[in-house]
TrEMBL record:
Record Pfam families: tRNA-synt_1c, tRNA-synt_1c_C, tRNA-synt_1c_C2
InterPro entries: Gln-tRNA-synth, Gln/Glu-tRNA_Ligase, Glu/Gln-tRNA-synth_Ib_cat-dom, Glu/Gln-tRNA-synth_Ib_codon-bd, tRNA-synt_1c_C2
Protein name per its UniProtKB record: Glutamine--tRNA ligase
Keywords: Aminoacyl-tRNA synthetase, ATP-binding, Ligase, Nucleotide-binding, Protein biosynthesis
Natural source organism: Paenibacillus allorhizosphaerae
Domain of life, per lineage: Bacteria
Family from the record: Belongs to the class-I aminoacyl-tRNA synthetase family.
Domain (Glutamyl/glutaminyl-tRNA synthetase class Ib catalytic): residue spans on this chain: 31-339
Entry's EC annotation: 6.1.1.18
GO molecular function: glutamine-tRNA ligase activity
Domain Glutamyl/glutaminyl-tRNA synthetase class Ib anti-codon binding: start-end pairs: 345-443
Domain tRNA synthetases class I (E and Q) anti-codon binding: 460-535
Length: 561
């Protein structure tokens, strides 16, 4: 059953279900499901829904199903199916053998519709889509009956069979449930439950040309699989009466129970598939796995771990309504997960050359530096040190402001894991005045790890040996959207919303040689710069590419302690 923290996100749902099971228990075991449409990629909001269903199943010693709601061949693709399965397993919510497809139940769903027609609870309607909408009414005005509502059952059965056989063009007829056109719940105003679509299905081919609507297929699929609790996000609450109506009219014994939880949103993040597709198709990002997107693929490529995402969801806790969580919580969970896992390496992104004039020429010294100052079990590594090194350009200034404890003329600092150095001379380009290199001296007795207790320095800076440095491209990310509010209509001009500086690429960043053989998706902490991951998409055998996952929360000198 796991620990209490593991189930924190389901507290209110756990209590609700426990009370219901005590009052009216099921004769079958607990079974939940996550039913994605295979028409896009999972995102961080999907992860919350998956976690809720998966954890409830575990909490009550049941099973968790992944079921694809693949009832619209116009939008679905096997590419999405494979991606969803891979992403769910990567997140740690592996359904094992319980992977199902709604399209496999086509015959049973069709037969259920036939049953409703025979009972006088469904009819074939010839109204156009626009007329169906017009007849439905509004939130304040009741709808009006379709002129085809009172067709005899025999005629409806014949027409429905012809729909199935492909005798009619798309959108010319639909099958509607006969409920109540005056219902205050607009979802009960004779909803469409089947429509005609002439398109090849990725799984069933051309075997069908009629497809059930989600609200009709969903409860029947749940019934077929023995689902006990259909846990949905809050926007489906108004659809619950239709879910119950379908199961009641089909006289299902021990019908599944639909219950709703809050929908998760993040500040400054767009999760709508429609909007994400616009960003991808308009070339504003480099694909569905762009590290700036909240898709699971994007988060993974950026460097987020499944543990950090699960921790984030658990930290949010129980959500009953639409809730917006600040993105900084996700960053915090990532840092907490990585801080004792990752090896800390030195990387110089804006190099400034330093020549240590009193260090022997052509000599290389191997220094032992701890891999992680918070986790001794990660051990130490050898880092080469030589006469010429590179430091960060902003670690030096000729006119240091108050509180500046890094390198300046005549000042002394410690090189991380190495020696004290003092700046003796500043070399500049005679034409531009730009600083080109520094000449420094080192004090051999100040070597780290030797127990030196003499004079103290306030600043420690990182460096890489010029001879041994590994080059890499570094992707630095900022938020993708400039504003919290995003466009809410199709065809919006995203160029006014997308941050033009959301991706900055540093070419030829210099890393210590330890990083040379980094594996795709391997994580590191770069001193002072943050946590980084090897980009599996653009890294090649000749070129390393790193994505910054998140900056360091602590100040630069605390990370160098």
């Amino acid at each position: 059953m796991g620990n209490e923290k593991e189930h924190a996100a389901e507290n209110f749902m756990v209590k609700l279900i426990a009370e219901e099971l005590e009052a009216v228990p099921f004769e079958r075991d607990m079974c939940t499901r996550f039913p994605p449409e295979p028409n896009g990629y999972l995102h961080i909001g999907s992860a919350y829904a998956i976690h809720t269903n998966y954890s409830i199943a575990r909490r009550f010693n049941g099973t968790f199903h992944l079921r694809f709601d693949d009832t619209n061949p116009l939008k679905e693709n096997i590419e999405y199916v494979n991606a969803i399965i891979e992403d769910i397993k990567w997140l740690g919510y592996d359904p094992g053998e319980h992977i199902y497809y709604g399209s496999d139940y086509s015959d049973k769903i069709y037969n259920a519709a036939v049953t409703l027609i025979k009972q006088g609870k469904a009819y074939v309607c010839d109204l156009s889509p626009e007329e169906v909408t017009e007849y439905r009414g509004t939130l304040t005005e009741p709808g009006k009956n379709s002129p085809y509502r009172d067709r005899p059952a025999e005629e409806n059965l014949e027409l429905f069979a012809k729909m199935k056989n492909g005798d009619y063009p798309a959108s010319s007829k639909v099958l509607r449930a006969k409920i109540d056109m005056a219902s205050p719940n607009i979802n009960l105003r004779d909803p469409v439950i089947y429509r005609i679509i002439h398109a090849e299905h990725y799984r069933t081919g051309n075997g069908w040309c009629i497809y059930p609507m989600y609200d009709f297929a969903h409860p029947i699929q749940d019934m077929i699989e023995g689902i006990t609790y259909s846990l949905c996000s809050i926007e489906f609450k108004d659809h619950r009466p239709l879910y119950d109506w379908v199961l009641r009219e089909l006289e299902i014994k021990e019908p599944p129970r639909q219950r709703e939880f809050g929908r998760l949103s993040l500040t400054g993040v767009v999760t709508s598939k429609r909007f994400l597709r616009q960003l991808v198709e308009e070339g504003l990002v480099d694909g569905w796995d762009d590290p700036r997107l909240p898709t699971i693929r994007g988060l993974r490529r950026r460097g987020f771990t499944p543990e950090s995402i699960r921790s984030f969801i658990e930290e949010i806790g129980s959500i009953r309504t639409q809730s917006t969580v600040h993105i900084s919580l996700l960053d915090h969970c990532l840092r907490q997960d990585l801080k004792e896992k990752t090896i800390s390496v030195m990387a110089v992104l804006q190099p400034l050359k330093v020549v240590i004039t009193n260090y022997p020429e052509n000599e290389t010294e191997l220094l032992l530096i701890e891999n992680n100052s918070e986790n001794e079990s990660l051990g130490k590594r050898e880092v080469p040190f030589s006469r010429t090194i590179y430091i960060e350009r902003d670690d030096f200034t000729e006119q240091p402001p108050k509180g500046f404890h890094r390198l300046s003329p005549g000042a002394e600092v410690r090189l991380k894991g190495a020696y004290f150095i003092k700046c003796e001379e500043v070399m500049k380009d005679p034409n531009t005045g730009e600083i080109t290199e520094l000449h420094c001296t080192y004090d051999p007795i100040t070597k780290s790890g030797t127990g030196f207790t003499g004079r103290k320095v306030k600043g420690t800076i990182h460096w890489v040996s010029a001879t041994h440095a590994t080059k890499a491209d570094i992707h630095l990310y900022e938020k993708l959207l400039l504003e919290q509010d995003i466009p809410d209509e199709d065809g919006a001009d995203w160029t006014d919303v997308v941050n033009p500086d959301s991706l900055v690429t540093v070419t030829d960043g210099l890393l210590e040689p330890f990083a040379r053989h980094a594996r795709p998706e391997q994580k590191f902490q770069f001193f002072r710069h943050g946590y980084f991951s090897v980009d599996h998409k653009f890294t090649t055998s000749e070129r390393l590419v790193f994505n910054r996952i998140v900056p360091l929360k602590d100040s630069w000198n605390k990370s160098l302690k």
